[in-house]
């Protein structure tokens, strides 16, 4: 079955001529097919299929003028040909080469100019190798790191400038570090903390300025500590506290 795209053009927009292709023998052997599996096609899916069918040809295409060809060839070519591709002008080529090379060679990609390369490199590095990236200028790189590194290392990211990153830290950091984030300036970070604190440590947040945090406190702290929250300025918090103090019997709530 061919792809839905009817045209067969190369990356420069020219019609593909199978008759002048050096891989004519492959066509005869049904190892390539126009509009389906062709190294000259401008569509990555067709190039990818060509190399899946003919991985032994990838070595001769790692320096091809079209970046899609170089990037896909890098997935199949000999690793001994890949180091120069770490300096390729296209980020997709650099990443496809980097994912197959030894770590000692790809550590340089931690400082790649393109955020997508730095984001992807996170998945192949160990915790210790990721620590220098915790101060990456791109918040999403730091976010991916916060989701991946061991909880014990997240203390270094407690003060991250991006609330979304700190929220991930709050969800994953070791329990004994939670209170260090209890005064975070972002209410959603504090809510994440409140949801993880034990009932014994929750009273620390009973006077939080955000009603959602106080509601969480009111729903789980000891009943004997709810007195102030039964008169909370927020109706939801007040209702939660009173329902627990008075066992849900609204008719017995004080006026």
What does this structure look like?
The protein is mainly α and 255 residues long. Among the domains are: 126-196, no CATH class; 200-255, no CATH class. It has 12 helices and no strands. It has helices at residues 24-28, 44-53, 67-73, 91-98, 103-106, 115-121, 127-130, 139-148, 163-172, 187-196, 211-220, 235-245. α3 (67-73) runs parallel beside α4 and α6 (115-121) packs parallel to α8. The longest helix is centred in the last third of the chain and has 11 residues, at 235-245. It starts with 23 loop residues before the first helix and ends in a 10-residue tail after the last helix. The relative contact order is 0.05. The model has no long low-confidence stretch (mean pLDDT 93).
Question: Helical segment tally?
Answer: 12
The SSE string, one letter per element, is: HHHHHHHHHHHH
Largest sheet, strands/sense/barrel: none
pLDDT under 50 segments (min length 5)?
A: none
- Rg of Cα set: 29 Å
**Helix/sheet category:** mainly alpha
């Amino acid at each position: 079955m061919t792809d839905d795209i009817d045209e067969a053009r190369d990356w420069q927009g020219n019609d593909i001529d199978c008759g002048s292709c050096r891989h004519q023998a492959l066509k005869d052997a049904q190892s390539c097919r126009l509009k389906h599996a062709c190294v000259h096609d401008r569509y990555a899916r067709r190039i990818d299929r060509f190399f899946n069918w003919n991985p032994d040809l990838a070595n001769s295409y790692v320096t091809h003028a079209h970046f899609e060809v170089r990037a896909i060839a890098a997935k199949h070519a000999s690793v001994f040909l890949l180091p120069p591709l770490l300096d390729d002008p296209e980020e997709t080529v650099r990443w496809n080469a980097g994912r197959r090379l030894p770590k000692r060679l790809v550590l340089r990609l931690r400082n790649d100019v393109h955020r997508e390369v730095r984001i992807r490199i996170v998945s192949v590095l160990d915790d210790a190798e990721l620590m220098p990236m915790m101060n990456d200028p791109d918040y999403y790189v730091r976010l991916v790191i916060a989701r991946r590194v061991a909880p014990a290392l997240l203390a270094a990211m407690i003060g991250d400038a991006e609330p979304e990153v700190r929220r991930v830290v709050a969800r994953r950091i070791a329990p004994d570090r939670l209170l260090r984030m209890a005064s975070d300036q972002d209410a959603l970070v504090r809510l994440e903390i409140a949801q993880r604190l034990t009932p014994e440590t929750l009273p620390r947040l009973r006077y939080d300025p955000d009603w959602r945090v106080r509601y969480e406190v009111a729903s789980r702290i000891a009943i004997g500590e709810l007195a102030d929250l039964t008169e909370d300025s927020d109706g939801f918090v007040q209702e939660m506290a009173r329902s627990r103090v008075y066992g849900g019997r609204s008719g017995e709530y004080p006026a």
